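Moderator note: this is an archived Q&A kept for reference. The question asked for a predicted structure of one protein chain; the sequence and the answer are reproduced below.
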Amino acid sequence: MQEFTVTFDLNGGELISGDAVQYVEAGEAAVAPEVEKERHTLSWDKAFTNITEDLTVTAQWEKRELSSTEVADIVQASTVTVACEYHNGNTGSGSGFFIDDGGTIVTCYHVIEYATDITVEMIGGGKYTVEKIVAFDELMDLAVLKINLSETPGLVLSTDVVKAGQAIYANGSALGTLVGTFTSGTVSNANRVVNGVKCIQIDAAISEGNSGGPLVNSYAEVIGVAAMSFLDGENLNLAIHIEQLEDIEEKNYSLTSYQEWIMREADRSYSLYTDQNTFYYSTINTYTAVTGRSCDRSVDFKDKAHAGYVYNSAYYIYKLVEHESEKYVSYLKDKGFVYADRKEYSDGVSYYYTNSRTSVQVDMFHSTDNEVWIWARYY
């Protein structure tokens, strides 16, 4: 009796039992081995019941949609709390998630911006110091961190097209303290562009502390990184599309190197000052950089005026053009500032904007002489 070889190509699956290579007599059937691939269903690309020649049968895998509890189990095991100490002495936290088995974590850049110390805590309680900031991009608001830990439960990054109406899930440390907060919802808009960054608008509940946490589809694959909410709406939340991760620049900075970068290279403007008249570089752009309006003069603490923009001055003065002023206010809000107060004086009105995370306050004074005076300080 003639015998033929039947080869079962597992196509990335794992052999549980049976034989991947079988020798079958003519006219007989091969016996499918037991094969598994996590979160996939199996079919074979051709029949193998009446063997008349050597044959290769290839496994066809289709992703299996998971229940919400299955998604939660997977995502919560991979999500971490990112805790930071900042240069001004403040502390804060956000969320992040593993993307491989070697301790690599994705989070939002604004979570770690200005950080002098960064630690991550896993849901089981393990706490690890970040050894390296692998990559980051301030505009895209993404950062990649590295801790010294192996066998971490990395999430799969989705390559599927995101569609409005599809089911999604978010996970993170809501308010910085409610670790493992898992919420569900749908994609409200799959292609929302904010400040040139491709985002996904969602109605799944997120809050402060969720920033940097994973947004996943029903296969527990990451489609976005939770980033922000519209305060004037209800359940109007945004996640940065995960495909933006490919575009951020590799840095491989230690924390010390990162702090040096902040001081040397960031888009800085006013040298922020303390009440002791100590100056620091800031990553807030100048009015000129945002609006194109040249600085008319700078004024130091001794009320001495200097022509144009001069570092380490207390005030920077520009011609007031309303749409330019509004553009700068919009920029400040994009950087995390909120309107705090308005005060009237005999010679004009001050508008105050504060960033509670960095403890920076910007005062925009609109004078009766049709000028805008700007100063920034730590408060």
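Archived answer notes: The two ends are 90 Å apart (CA to CA).
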